[in-house]
Design a protein that fits this description.
By secondary structure, this protein is mostly helical. The protein has one domain. The chain is built from 14 helices and two strands; from the N terminus they run H-H-E-E-H-H-H-H-H-H-H-H-H-H-H-H. Helix 5 packs across helix 6. The radius of gyration is 19 Å and the shape is globular. It has a two-stranded antiparallel sheet with strand order 1-2.
């Protein structure tokens, strides 16, 4: 079995409690700060909502990770951990400044590549594998950012993914702490949003999840991809469909599968829960053992979901998608 309750429990440490409290305090402060996300034509919300909840998630994670590692007799000063922290700090800083001032896309993409390279630091992997990880991490970072368009979807997917990574024995202390910060934030955002994560949460959090794929564990890469299969398929299918239609790929839109599902009349909370279900199914698929078997198992529900959503959209969505 790839998952173990003992592995999951080994990730719980005393600093998890102050991390939860700190996350709540920071999220409440960001609500009071009133940095608003105003709805535009592609938004799923219809009124201004505070953003920056990711500062609570990432801030609590970064501040409580050193004592959590110390109490489990793990060194904070290792290449993988320092690389992760450096990448997350860089990406969180750039993402928050972008939320405030809106940088050109090329600057944000450059920051993502540098952050991913930092996260790969000290992994001991060969150069080709490191390059592959950086490219994959950048794609995952953007995919989870794109998917963070309805309440609880991205944060719930990342929380469940972190718990399964911890249960598989992949850096349990890191991923249990991260999952706790996400789960503390989730009630503020789902089913009704009092605050959004913003890019600080979606991009920096995505980098943390992607970092799990680089760890020296036989299931690390396969498990990470399986857990994120719903998100990755949605983004890949949407890019392919829009490219085939001749749409500008860099242009903002509302054509993702999860957006089409909501626009066709499906309740937003139901769509979010379905994507959480894809994470659970990805974990179950990994029990199959062989990567090709896991791939086939995770592909089947994605094809069914795609066919169902596109059929609904053709019948019920009148404007361009």
């Amino acid at each position: 079995m790839p998952f173990s309750l003992q592995s999951l429990l080994s990730g719980f440490t005393l600093p998890d409690l102050p991390a939860a409290l700190l996350c709540m305090v920071l999220v409440a402060l960001m609500i009071r700060a009133g940095v608003m996300d105003h709805p535009v034509h592609r938004s799923s919300h219809t009124r201004p909502i505070p953003k920056g909840g990711g500062i609570g998630i990432i801030g609590a994670f970064l501040l409580c990770l050193p004592p959590a590692l110390y109490l489990t007799h793990q060194s904070f000063f290792t290449g993988p951990i320092l690389g992760l922290i450096g990448g997350v700090v860089l990406l969180a800083t750039v993402s928050w400044l972008d939320d405030l001032y809106s940088f050109p896309a090329r600057y944000k993409l450059a920051a993502q590549f540098v952050a991913a390279a930092l996260a790969a630091f000290g992994s001991g992997a060969s150069l080709p594998l490191t390059v592959l990880f950086v490219l994959g991490a950048v794609f995952i970072t953007n995919a989870l950012n794109f998917i963070d368009g309805i309440n609880g979807l991205a944060s719930g997917v990342m929380a469940l993914s972190a718990l399964f990574l911890a249960a598989s024995g992949i850096q349990p202390v890191v991923f249990v702490l991260f999952a706790i910060c996400l789960l503390v934030f989730l009630p503020w955002n789902f089913p009704k949003a009092r605050i959004f994560m913003g890019d600080v949460g979606s991009q920096s959090g995505a980098l943390i999840i992607a970092w799990g794929a680089m760890q020296p564990h036989p299931l690390a890469g396969t498990l990470t991809l399986a857990l994120l299969s719903g998100v990755l398929w949605d983004v890949l299918f949407t890019l392919a469909r829009r490219a085939r239609a001749g749409d500008h790929l860099a242009q903002a839109h509302r054509g993702h599968l999860y957006q089409l599902a909501v626009r066709s009349g499906m309740p937003m909370p139901l769509v979010t829960v379905i994507y959480w279900g894809f994470v659970l199914w990805g974990a179950i698929a990994c029990i199959a053992g062989q990567p090709w078997e896991t791939g086939l198992l995770v592909l089947l529900p994605q094809l069914c979901w795609t066919g169902y959503v596109c059929t609904r959209a053709k019948a019920r969505v009148q404007d361009h998608w």
